[in-house]
Amino acid sequence: MKKNTECTQQFLGKQSISFAYPVYIQGYAAIVGKKEGEGPLGKCFDLVEQDDMFGQKSWEEAESIMQKRCAELVVEKTGISMEDIRLIFAGDLLAQSIASSFGIGSLDRPMYGLFGACSTMGEALGLGAMAIAGAYGDRVLAATSSHFATAEKEFRFPLEYASQRPLSAAWTVTGSGACILGSKKSNIKITGITTGRQTDYGLKDSQNMGACMAPAASSTIVQCLKDFSLNPENFDKIITGDLGYIGQQILLDMTEKEGYQITDVHEDCGILIYDQKTQDTHAGGSGCGCAAAVLTAYILPKLSSGEWKKVLYVPTGALMSKVSFYEGSSVPGIAQGVIIEHVEEEK
């Protein structure tokens, strides 16, 4: 590839980067489980797998296969080969990111494993965009996944325990989303990012992650608007990761106190993916696969068609582990902001 000799980025404000060198989303794909396929976005996903085990012997193997299939699918849809991928940025919720390392790791491409909890897709897009803008590769794959059963087993209770979930709890999405980023022009472009800061309000209820993550979402959104000198009305949508119904209201209250009214343009992936009235998902959806699957099945198609011109995508994560929970630590949050825009075709 040719070395980019132009200015590749511009640092803005406290936490943001504006890309001078184009970073395009050249392809995207989403695979989900049966429950997600029965939700409001069911017809949007590339593949709805009816077997939550994905033909495997364990839940963990199922998630690895799901993420691998999603990566292979986006490569196929983009019309390239796996060898064309210069770098992979991928992650999941499991300890040591085994869903990604055992799944995408088997694709034999250079890989960086990431952990940003449910914000991981935003982290992957941000790092991937910097790699493309810096001319460190022609194509980068960004992917994440989550699985309801692996998350319950890892962070809560095995399914066999039949624990009753509180109404504040979210339902971990069984799903995976993947994107191909590159320098070749498409009709969707990443124009900037706002890297999130860890935000900790001292909350310790891991069953109410929406409340734990909402302050981080507010922090990133407000800083993005300040750094880029924008207002909420400059976006068709500001879409957070998986705050759910409880976290959404906290976010709206916090941003309003900062002087920004985002109610008219705000949506949340955790609210979009399930029907609260019929699917018994309580506070909404969560997990790395939630924001990733909604991005690739719902948000990017609307940007590609031109129905939406500009979106601020802000997946959110609760930075906890089994160890931190049992030691009584609070649950810090983080949110990664990615500005994605429609590109008009040349006439």
How would you summarize the topology of this molecule?
Elements: E1 9-12, E2 16-32, H1 34-37, E3 47-48, H2 59-78, E4 87-91, H3 98-103, E5 111-114, H4 120-133, E6 139-146, H5 148-155, E7 171-172, E8 175-182, E9 188-194, H6 209-227, E10 237-240, H7 244-257, E11 266-268, H8 269-272, H9 276-279, E12 285-286, H10 288-305, E13 310-314, E14 316-318, H11 322-326, E15 333-335, E16 337-342
Parallel strand pairs: 2-3, 4-5, 4-6, 7-12, 10-11, 10-13
Antiparallel strand pairs: 1-2, 2-8, 2-9, 6-8, 9-16, 13-16, 14-15
Helix pairs in contact: 6-7
Question: In a nutshell, what does this entry contain?
Answer:
Helix content is 33%, strand content 24%. It has 347 residues and is of the alpha/beta class.
Describe the model:
By secondary structure, the chain is α/β, with parallel strands linked by helices. The protein folds into two domains: 23-182, Peroxisomal Thiolase, Chain A, domain 1; 188-341, Peroxisomal Thiolase, Chain A, domain 1, CATH 3.40.47. Helices cover 33% and strands 24% of the residues. It has eleven helices and 16 strands. It has helices at residues 34-37, 59-78, 98-103, 120-133, 148-155, 209-227, 244-257, 269-272, 276-279, 288-305, 322-326; strands spanning 9-12, 16-32, 47-48, 87-91, 111-114, 139-146, 171-172, 175-182, 188-194, 237-240, 266-268, 285-286, 310-314, 316-318, 333-335, 337-342. The strands form three sheets. Strands 1, 2, 3, 4, 5, 6, 8, 9, 10, 11, 13 and 16 form a twelve-stranded mixed sheet that branches. A two-stranded parallel sheet has the order 7-12. Strand 4 (87-91), helix 3 (98-103) and strand 5 form a beta-alpha-beta unit. Helix 6 (209-227) runs parallel beside helix 7. The longest helix is centred in the first third of the chain and has 20 residues, at 59-78. It starts with 8 loop residues before the first strand and ends in a 5-residue tail after the last strand.
